[in-house]
Amino acid sequence: VGTHLKKIMKYIFSIILLGLLLINCNSKKVKAVNSKVLDEKILSTEKDTIVNYWALEYDTIKSSKPFEFEKVKYFLDLKTYSLNDSLIKRDLSSDDNMYFDISHSRITRLTLTNKNIRTDLNIKKKDFKKLLDSVFYANCNLLSTELGRISQDTIYLNTELAIPDTDVQWKVGYYYLIKNHRLARQYLDSKEYVGQ
Prior knowledge:
By secondary structure, the chain is of the alpha+beta class. It is built from two helices and nine strands.
C-alpha cells in the first residue's frame, strides 16, 4: 500500500507541475503578443529620431606672438580648444522625423604675459551675442580666433563663428587695450559674413 500511495502522489505532483508550466507559458505568449501589438502602434505613430553627436575635437589650435610696448616685453598666447562639458544642441526636426545635431562648445584662451604680470581671458561665443543674429547665435559655435595685429597698446583679434556642418559663418573683429600691463575690456569693432 505504501509504494502505491507514493506512485499516486508522484502522478498528482507531475500533473500539478505540468499544469503550472502550461499556464506560465500561455501567459508569456499573451504578454508577447500584447507587447508586439503595442510596439507596432508606437512605431506607426512616433517619428523617426536621429541624433548626430559630433566627436570631441582633441586638437588645440595655438598661436603666439612676442611684442614690445613702452619698453616692456610682452608675450601673447592664443589657444582654441573644445570643452568636454559643454554642448550646443541644434533641433533640425521636420514634420516627418526628429533630428538633433549635438557638438561641443569651443573657447579661445587669451594669455598676455610680461616679466611680472599674467592676464588670462576666455573668449566665448557669448561675448558676441549682442552683435549676432539670435537664430545664428543659438546654433553657432566658435570656430577659430586669430591675431589681426598689435598696434601700440591695442591687440586686434578676429574670431570666426559658424553653424556646424554648414557654410553659414561670420567673422567678428574686436580689440583689447593694454592698461597697467594687463588686458582691459573687449571692444567689438566689426562683423563680416564670410560663409558661402
